[in-house]
Each structure stands twice: as structure tokens, then as C-alpha cells.
Amino acid sequence: MTDRSTESSGTQVPWNLADLWELTTDRYPDREALVVGSQRVTYREIEERSNALAHVLADAGVGPGDHVACYMQNCVEFVETMLAAFKIRAVPLNVNYRYVHAELSHLLQDGDAVAVVFHRRFTDAMAEVAGDLDDLRISLVVDDIDPRAEPSQGDPVAFGAIDYTEAVGAASTARDFGPRSGDDIYLMYTGGTTGMPKGVEWRMEDAFFACVGGGDPMRLLGPVSSVDELCDRILDDQVVVMACAPLIHAAAQWTSMSWWLCGGRMVLLPGSFDGAEVWRQIEAEGVNILIVIGDAMARPLLDAWDDEGGFEVPSLYTVSSGGAPLNPNNKARLQEILPNLIIADGYGSSETGAQGTQRLMPGDSASEGTKFVLDPEVTCVLDEDMVPIEPGSDTIGKVARTGRMPLGYYGDPKKTAETFVEANGKRWAITGDQAVVEADGTITVLGRGSVSINTGGEKVFPEEVEAALKTHPDVFDTVVVGVPDERWGETVAAIVAATEGAEPTLDVLKAHVRTSIAGYKVPRKLVIVDEVVRSPTGKADYPWAKKTASDRE
């Protein structure tokens, strides 16, 4: 595939994340780039340490196309590892740090990891899987920064790991790497909702435009057409953005990179999500834009606001949710406490990049639900014959993306062929999301077909029922699944984590949701749990939910 480079100041520069990062660094080297807990670093500091790590990896035999696993919580070293891999045309591999042995071993073997950079707290887990990795060339251990990290009992030296700080400190910081390309690979492992993780492979040029914003992180100006234009968009007044998701999540990676390429400062949490701590960070750092992952983060933020009596956050002007939309009640509450706030929902996936947005401006009503505005050139809703559905039809179709999209799933041609299909002269990415096209051309996403519930021949999308349940004040969090039923095939079951002090009953919740959803969608079973199990990225664990619902009478 031809690499479309563009010219800046007479130099050929590819659409490559390492090259574009270096352009920003050269323009504002002493601007603060990243804050993670007690770690504060400038663009220059990240650049020099990334160069040093790139030399360490290259000296260990890591080269173009090799996979470098990032087995860390949020930290500066995670970012340095990503950039170091990009610089030598290697491929960073995101690792879910909650995985147990079987899952971790599968991911590192399936992902063909030849290098692993890991937090010290994960030493015991690494010791168990290191022997499974036939081509492991180097592993580096990073000191923990999460104050709640439980110390590991193992010794990383026992399986050959070396100290990250010592290795980087002894290496050259020279930027003396070979040329790179827009054809270099960007890889994002996605856990999905129902199965083992899959690695989504992108050409880096396509990832820059489809995932990282193409030089337009707010999706307002449109993508850039040249590197000169990208440089012109580097803001003299720095925007401060806080992403609550871990860097193992596409939302955090894409947000961070999109704002770094515009000269922004990112603020990340060093450990698990804590609503009050997020507000304190917004106060302390003067955060302008807050990125959350759906109601699983928005609700604790609102509870923390109430518990603490509010916070002074005049700098904050946007709250944006990726991965899952915010329900209307939480949007309305955000508008109540921060009347001048812009609230945005983003729609997309690791397989499609960013596909659509909804913005709620100050004064807009939050009661209309979430309807995404799409770019009709690349995203539409297709019927069973792969023909775009006309606006205003009640037909439920498949959300599909064309244009810039992934090469496929790493090492999985069968799944690639199922998800990325040819039809009507175009290649389409179809992830399984079902939607209807409204009369105004916006779409309402109903949910993922693979987790839909078939009850008496009617299809129920869990997300719709979950959204209705979350509008009840007694429901803190919920996940909805289908459980076997002799009469209906499946029946709808709601697993609910109650608001503190509340004791919701099935009858109360049934009556509440019946005002907004059809009768066949109403839960027939309620299971109360202390906590709804989710991944670090906020995704519901549907296998856990099904087992929990089935095990409870």
C-alpha cells in the first residue's frame, strides 16, 4: 500500500505517530505533557526517555513489526514504551492488568510478545507466564506509582527482568532511528463483551485519521490535509485534558495522542478510578476537558460531588463519554451542577475508530436520549442486503464503516473475514451494533446483536433496558442478560448494584421501566449484587453476568 507522506519545511514526514509526536516536541519541548499522580514530565523528558528505551529495545533485538507488551497501569513509562516502540517501528501491545494466568498467557502468546514492560506489582504474574513465551527477548520492571498497589512477593531478576529506570538511564537519548512509514502497524487489543481478546491491526496512517482525530481532537474543524496544517493547530494556549480510563483502553490512548499532537497536557489517574480524586485533580490541574467511560464513571463522580459538597472547577467546560453513552439523568445532573458545561457522547470501537458524536450544549434538554451524528461518507446503517437504510425508517440495521479501517484481526483470518466484508464495491467494518436511522439522519444505537436477548421471538437489547433501569435513583449500576426460560426461550434478568442504603425490588423497577420500554423488555428477574463486575475499561462482563443470573434463584 502506498504511504502518503506530506511535506513540512521541506522534509518528508509520514503520517506516523512517532514522527508527528516529534514535530510537537520540537515545537514546545519544555511544555508539560503528562501528569500521572506524582509524576510530571515535559515533552522533552518523554522524548529523551522514549529514545533511550527505543535503544534498549533495539539492542535486545526488538525491531520492525515486533510486539512490545505494555503490562502496566497508567504511568509515564507506559507512554514512553508506546513511543519507543513506534520509533523503531515495533508495535506496542496493550495488556489488561486484571487478567489471571490463563488470560495473560493467551494474550501474550496470541500477541507474539517479544518484549514486556511491566509494573513491579505484577512480578508474580509475569513469573508464571514468562516460561510460556518462546521468543521473549527482554522484560523490564517499572516501579509502582499506584499508592494502593499490593507489593509482589517475587523477584523479577529470577526470570531475567531488568530494571527499567537503570536501563533507560544508561542508554543513548539520541534520535537516530531509521525512516518510518504510514504503513507501520498500530495494534489495539480489545476484550469485547463475550470472548477472548482480539488484536485489531491498523495501518498507522489510517489510525491517525480514524482513531486519533486526524489533527482535530474536538471533531470540529475536520481532518488536516498536511503536516503544516497540523503544526498550525498546535495551540499556543495549552488545553488540559483528563482521561479517567486506563491507557490499556482505546479511549485513553486515542484521546492522549490526539491532544499531544496539538500540544495539550494530559492528566491520568495512577490507579483505580475514584470520583472524589478526579474532582480534586480537575481543581488542582485546571482541567478543561474530562473524558469518562459511561455511567460507570459518571455516577460515582456525581455521588462524590454530593458527598463532598461540590468542588471549584471553573476551568472545566466539557465532559465527554467514550465507550458508552451517558444516561439522561446523569446528563441532567451534570447540567444542574455545572450549567455552562458541554456534554458529549462519542460512538466508535477499536474496529472502526471514531464514528459519531452527540453534543449537548448549555441549555439543551438531556431528555431526548442519545442520537449520534455520523459522517455519512464513512458510516451508515445497512439492511440485510447491505444497502443503506433511509432516514425515518423503523428498520433495524447494522452499523457499518467504510473508508479508513483496520487491516483485520491479528492472526485471525476467520474473524477478520466475518467482521470486514466486501459489498457493493466497498469494504465495510461491521462490529454487530444494531441501530435505527432517525428522520433527521442521526442514529439511535440499540446495542450489540451478539448479546441481544430473544424472548418469545422478540429481540431485546440489554443496553436499552440498562439505560431505563439506571434512571431509577435506587440503581447505582446494572447489567442485563438473558436467562433460559421454558416458555419464552429466554427471559430478561437484571443484575443490580443498589445505591447505598437502597433496597430496590423487582416490582418497583418493573413499574419504573415500563413507562419507557415495551412490556416484553421489562426484567422478569432481579439479582442484587454488591458490585457489577466490569473490566478496567468499564465494559460489562456478560459471561459473569449470565452465570450470576443463572445461579441465583
Overall morphology: globular
SS-derived structural category: alpha/beta
At the fold tier of CATH, the topology name of the domain at 42-179 is Rossmann fold
Radius of gyration: 23 Å
Contiguous uncertain segments of 5+ residues: 1-11
Could you describe the largest sheet, including whether it forms a barrel?
9 strands, mixed
CATH structural architecture of the domain at 42-179: 3-Layer(aba) Sandwich
- What is the helix content? 25-40%
What's the arrangement of strands in the largest beta sheet? Answer: 4-3-13-12-14-15-16-17-18
Overall average residue pLDDT = 92
What can you tell me about this protein's structure?
With 553 residues, the protein is α/β, with parallel strands linked by helices. Among the domains are: 42-179, Rossmann fold (3-Layer(aba) Sandwich), CATH 3.40.50.980; 234-368, Rossmann fold; 452-551, ANL, C-terminal domain (GMP Synthetase, Chain A, domain 3). It is built from 16 helices and 29 strands. A nine-stranded mixed beta sheet has the order 4-3-13-12-14-15-16-17-18, with helices on both faces. It has a five-stranded parallel beta sheet with strand order 6-5-7-8-9, with helices on both faces. Strands 19, 20, 22, 23 and 24 form a five-stranded antiparallel beta sheet that branches. Strand 28, helix 15 (506-513) and strand 29 (525-529) form a beta-alpha-beta unit. The longest helix is centred in the N-terminal third of the chain and has 17 residues, at 43-59. The chain is globular, with a radius of gyration of 23 Å. The termini are far apart.
